[in-house]
Amino acid sequence: MKTAHRQPLLTIVLAAGKGTRMKSEMPKVLHQVGGLPMVGHVLKTATASGSTNTAIVVGPGMTNVSDAATKLNPSAGVYVQTQQLGTGDAVLAARDAIASHEGDVLVMFGDTPLIRPETVARLVGALDGGAEVAVLGFHAKDPTGYGRLITDGLVSDGVANLLSIREQKDATTAERQIDFCNSGVIAFRTKDLLGCLNRIGANNASGEYYLTDVISIMRADGRRAVAVAGLEVEMLGVNSRAHLAEAEGVFQRRARDAAMAGGATLIDPATVWFSHDTVIGRDVLIEPNVFFGPGVSIGNDVTIHANSHLTGAIVEDSAELGPFARLRPGARIGKNAKIGNFVEVKNATFEPGAKANHLAYIGDARVGSKANIGAGTIFCNYDGYFKHKTDIGAGAFIGSNSSLVAPVKIGDGAMIGSGSVITKDVAADSLALARPVQESREGWAGKFRAMMTKKKASAAK
Fold this sequence. Notes:
Blueprint: E1 9-14, E2 32-33, E3 36-37, H1 38-48, E4 53-58, H2 63-72, E5 77-80, H3 87-92, H4 95-99, E6 104-109, H5 117-125, E7 133-139, E8 148-156, E9 159-166, E10 180-188, H6 193-198, H7 213-220, E11 225-230, H8 241-261, E12 265-266, E13 272-273, E14 279-280, E15 285-286, E16 290-292, E17 297-298, E18 303-304, E19 309-310, E20 314-315, E21 320-321, E22 326-327, E23 332-333, E24 338-350, E25 355-367, E26 372-373, E27 378-380, E28 390-392, E29 397-398, E30 403-405, E31 408-410, E32 415-416, E33 421-422, E34 431-432, H9 444-460
Parallel strand pairs: 1-4, 1-6, 4-5, 7-11, 12-15, 13-16, 14-17, 15-18, 16-19, 17-20, 18-21, 19-22, 20-23, 21-24, 22-24, 23-24, 24-25, 25-26, 25-28, 26-29, 27-30, 28-31, 29-32, 30-33, 32-34
Antiparallel strand pairs: 2-3, 6-10, 7-10, 8-9, 9-11
């Protein structure tokens, strides 16, 4: 839910880090949590927090990051940090966006995907009290490595006056005992932000331009800075595969809780995996070991049996899936339809009441209402070059172990005999059979066994 602010909000997302500890050729922010690149989570949070403009800061040659970000937010501006000289330098890479913006400025990180919109709203809202800068902090169980937030200790409505931020490398022994740490997320409400950023120096242990130094600069000018406390779990920055798994775990727990709060029953929540955009209706029953890939929407009163896998599919009210059902992109399962065990559906629509109870592949097709697809049926939709469509009429019956070679149309109420290979259209209410005539040779099997038994005995001698 979007939260309105008194000022227009520009969000600058820093996404130039290569993430060498990920041991990957892919930039860190493109690694996924809940089926969405981490930078996508940050962009969604910014939008949900009321951001009116967005700027993405990437490194040289990181076109895959800029392409992904602008696909997720087409209005976002992309800026390149030519050298990685610290967070202050990274924000200044977006100087044109800052210069053309009138209102609040929020700085977020593309590798911190778990911050909730309501937390960002509290941070930006803290500027309403007269502060010109607000920093999002958290109390860390182990503060080692984090910058420390040094406050005056006075807290009002969860907001403390912020005196300075000290990086771990530059902190004194006493300052390192502080557990109130910097998340890196900062909000500004000042007309002279660029002037303050330009005054940041690199006189520190790393020789970098720290964005956090702007706190001391602004305070020296007599401007107020505050710190807002959030939950440590939200501030997890992903710097390794282990961190990525940790973030995924947090996301999944949130998604499971949300599904159950919305009226779904998860028999074993820990074994159900959601994507960032999964939609689950009310009175849905989900058995163990069910995986939802991106693009899945489930209606009300749906039953999903164990070990089913869904991606890019729409399932309407009162349908039943699985166990071991596989729905691929483009699958649309109508009301009261049934997709049974070991049935795969791809780019196909099942109209209300249609069913394929077991062992079938249905691709590039329409299955009419109350049609019945028998076990072992294959829709042969691909000729090695192009996909073709199969159309099954309402109330049609497809016998077991049939192959329908697309393009082909089976009329309403038609029946296909078991074991048939259908290559031509079948008229409504017709019976189609396409299989060899059965031939029987009495006594042949007994003679064959006797002959082979004799041969085997001779070979053994």
